[in-house]
Amino acid sequence: MPTELEELVGFIAHPNEPIRQIATENLVPYSTSQPSIFKTNQLLPIKHLKFLIRDHPKIAEHAITILINLTGDKEVLGNVASDDRFLGFLFANLTDPAEPNANLLAMLLANLSKWEDFKSILTRKQPAPKGLGSNELVLNQLIDLFVKGADGSYNKHADFDYLAYLFADLAKHAEIRQYFLQKQEYDGVVPINKIRVFTEHASDVRRKGVASVIKNVAFDVPAHPAFLDEDQVNILPYILLPIIGGEEYSEEEMMPMLPDLQLLPPDKKRDSDPRIIQTHIETLLLLTTTRPARELMREINVYPVIRETHLRVEDEEVREACERLVNVLMADEEDETKNGEEKKAIEDVDEDDEKVVEV
């Protein structure tokens, strides 16, 4: 005999709209406390919840929230992420400039990107929405949504910040790393150049996700020359500015630094999140894989910035990352023992794995 909760789950498919709304609203807390009630009858409740993203906006809000919480379960994740028809509705709704639940849909996508085969998004297409300025490639549309969301110029209901977590997970796949570094024909811009500018954005979610994208793409060692080239990606200013504060440097130390880092105001703040700082430092460590990159970092005097970060950020993991980077930068290029230590320090860097989002 079904429990009261199981009966309530059954009401999410009720033909009467007010009943569906009451049921979904009351079930939201149980999607985290008792998720098993949604896994009955071969995941039939999940099927109903997926259908409800096209329902009345308030019902859709509750249904999406429940799905966000449930996709931390591998079985539910696989069911939702492999449903091509559902994904079609999801992407179409997300790119609708009037969609009131766009931020929740972005959060759901961030979770779906945990599914290994979600990388097939790379070739997925849908009609380009008017006003977005994108092409038919869904991934390009998501990048453009993310950019326009920063100032709310596309959808007044959404900032699309959580797409940064989606991009970070996708960037673990080699073919999508290459996408981030390839100039797109429709606008002539390299995708990573569209998102690198948000490393100092006000949103913690956006900054954290973008830092992880940059780090994960940096695992593509052949792309490092483009990363460092001032006329291509030119990533170093976007990594170094978030980790530098308003501390004073001697003229001797400051003059070789990148122009963006010189004469910063004394009230300049480094990023407040130590995990973001750690991510940026680990990206620098990855970029020291090649000798030209190491020599460039010495030439532009990265060491003093890392020294001050080590002194001023009271976080053990940040300090350990600083020490590993300093060991590489201060090593003698001709010392084979130290070169071996450099290699190990770089190999110890893990890809960023954003946690499953819950609401």
Automatic annotation (TrEMBL):
Biased composition annotated in UniProt, kind: Basic and acidic residues: 337-347
Domain of life: Eukaryota
Region listing for Disordered, in residue ranges: 332-359
Pfam families hit by this protein: DUF383, DUF384
Feature: compositional bias, Acidic residues: 348-359
Cross-referenced InterPro entries: ARM-like (IPR011989), ARM-type_fold (IPR016024), Hgh1 (IPR039717), Protein_HGH1_C (IPR007206), Protein_HGH1_N (IPR007205)
Family indicated by similarity: Belongs to the HGH1 family.
Protein name: Protein HGH1 homolog
Gene source species: Rhypophila decipiens
Lineage of the organism: Eukaryota, Fungi, Dikarya, Ascomycota, Pezizomycotina
